[in-house]
Every structure is written in C-alpha cells, then in structure tokens.
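Handout, section B. The chain below has 291 residues.
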Amino acid sequence: MNLDNTEFESQLKKTLARFLFHDENQTPKNLAESIQYSLLSPGKRIRPRVTFACAEMLGLPSKTVLSAALALEMTHCFTLIHDDLPCMDNDDYRRGLLSNHKKFGEGLALLAGNGLMALAVDVLLDSPVEPTSLLLGIKQLIQAMGPRGVVGGQAAEALLTPSSTLEDLRKMHHQKTGALFKAALLIPKEFAGISDFTPLGQAILSFSDALGFAFQIADDLEDAQEKNQQTSPTSILSYLSPQKSAQLASDELTSTSHLLMEHWGSKAHSLKEISTEVLIKITHALGDFTG
C-alpha cells in the first residue's frame, strides 16, 4: 500500500525533527531552517511515489522503502537548491516561493544542498533490509546523485551548445533528470533481491530509463510554451519537432510499461498509472504547443 501525500509529508517532518533538531550534535539553526524551508515546500513528490509504486509491484511493504523514498526526495531537493543558485540557473523562485538562496543567502543555500546529500544517505541507512541489499541500495543512491548521475548531468548541461547532438542531450538528461527516476526504481529492486541480469531486472531498468526520458519531454514541451525555449540547446525541441519528441517518449514508455505488466500483471498497476499520467501530460503539452 502506497503512502498518500499527507502521510509522506508527515514522515518528512518527523525525519527532519529527528535528524536536524533532536540529535546530540544539533545542526546549526540557520542550516536546519534552510533545509527545512526547501524540503517542506509544496511539491509533487513524484520520485517517492515511484518508489512506493515499485515496492508495491515487487511485494515489498511501504515501510521497507520509506527511508529510500525520503532519501530520494532529499536528493531531489538538493538538486533544486543548487540549480537555482546564481552560478547555475539563477532563479529567484521555486515552487511559488523565494528560492533558497534568495531567502537565506548563497552560502547557506550551497551548504543546505550539500547537507541534504549527506542527510539522504544517513536516512537511507535506516532501511529495514539485510546488509547486502542495503549496500546495493546505497550504491544506487550515491551513483544517482554523483558525477555519473545528477551532478554529472548538471556539469554536462553547461557543455551543450547549438552544435550539440541529440545523443549529447539525451546523455545529459539521462543523468540530470533520469538518474533519480532510475534510483527510485532500482533501490526497491535491490531491496527485493532482483538482479540486473534477469528478465525482471531488465524490465525495471528499461522502464526506469523510459520514465525519466518521458518526464523530461513533458517538461520541455511545457517550458517551450511558458518560457519560449524552443531553441535552447538543453531542450529536445532543438533537435526534434514537438510531434516527434512526444511520439518517441510515448513509444518508449508505452512499450516498457507493457513489459512490466507482462511480468507482474495487476501488481504493476500503480507504476502503469504513473506512466499514463506522464503520457497525458505530454499529450496536453503537445496540444497547447500545436494549438
């Protein structure tokens, strides 16, 4: 059974209280407030939702992956704080609120992001699974957040130019956006003891790649309407038409969703539902773009 948003928000608050305010070596108040400000701001919590849905498919109780879901949301939050910094995207607002650096200053925002990286691993260590599975899960998280994951994607984004190729773009998005979606599925897979080298493991891997890519396509289509970014080298629309972009994402996500259903049947319903929501988002964005 998945945790609903209210329950998950409650768990986020309890976890922050335990890790930031109740330990013997208390986190400095300004840093704790900065972390809390961004982590508890309104959000879709899509990555934790994917984690719980994957656990449901694999027959894992939600409590088994709760720490993983919390860790992934913390990791995602660190990427948002750092993305907004003046040295990166220089955004003044996030989720309708002042971005962290506008509220607390650049130095503290940087430290809050760094702190969330460490806190995510600390929280994941509370997962109630056997040591080997836990180590594999931690490895998935660290790879997702590091130079082969989000941080690498953030660096690769700075290298994109009008002469970059579609392959360059997809590699960047595979790290910056896809890595955390992938971890949201691969950590439960590790906890369930499913090897990458099995048909079941390959089905989850394929779906994780397709989900991250489709989610990015939806964002690119929406941004093209809202911010007129059709010609940005970081947008798929600089390489493919809106129609071709949407079709590519739809084909990949639909085929990999069907593969999950073939292996797990109705147990994969929650993940299939998420994939359908992403496809609807793409369809609506495409309609707005072409309308």
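Note. The chain has two domains: 1-151, 194-291. Compare this with the example in section A.
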